Amino acid sequence: MNQLDFEKPVLELEGKIAELRHMNSDEDGMNIAEEVERMTAKADRLLQSTYSKLTPAQKVQVARHQNRPHFKDYIVELIEDFTPLAGDRNFAEDHALIGGLGRFNGQSVMVIGQEKGNDTESRIKHNFGMTRPEGYRKAQRLLAMADQFQIPVITLVDTAGAYPGRGAEERGQSEAIAKSIESCLRTHVPIISVVIGEGGSGGAIAIATANKVFMLEHSIYSVISPEGCASILWRSGEHAQDAAAALKLTAQDLKSFNLIDDIIDEPIGGAHRYRTETIHNVGIKIQAALDELSDWDKDKIVKDRREKFLKFGRDI
Prior knowledge:
2-enoyl-CoA Hydratase, Chain A, domain 1; globular; 8-stranded mixed β-sheet; 2 domains; 316 residues; alpha/beta
């Protein structure tokens, strides 16, 4: 997963550049510095050309890249004094969904989001970002706390979907998701949501029913995964690429349908190559949204959010 198939020509060039940079002297009269500069420019052009025409299936691969910055990376870069708040006060703590208090550019905020993990141990701990019912009930508790203390909410979405296991269903997965959506709709403080990787089905919208919904340029947001769609419609996962195109799951598709507010640019080559720059871009967009919503009164905040989601599909 570290290497994407369509990036192979770029990766080969980058490998040659790395080899040249480790050479101590010119060979056969070749100026190493000039050759490195020439090949770097060629790699940049190739990368730009590649990423300017990604197919929906390729966007899915980029959105799932394990080196994309995850929830914890955004916390480290954007949130000061983050204090996680654990448990749903009913059943258990869910490590797939993390939430807590912190300061964003000096302003107190509640931050909620899914964490996928970055190695085998952490992925198992965080259940690959697939939230169980207790995670969504924790989100409801944190939304209520933010409402009580009039603290804006920032949610970072990155999940293939809610956990589909038997135990989750027995503990009321669908009800927990529905209640989370309802909690978002009733909260009297601004909610700003960013899809930073995958936005999978109800597992995503449970914390993305926000006043402002943004997507990173190469993120995806869909009612079902391409693999799941292919298995239902074609009875075969081999048609996942066709499903990805049919689902209209890219940020560009959703913006054209007015289902999101804006797209946050990623540096050429994707967030997995330029993590810090991507997080910085997200921070700028969140701050602009907070500034815009800061003068809204409670009733306008709730009315705007409800009207936003009630009109989905009417303008398509």
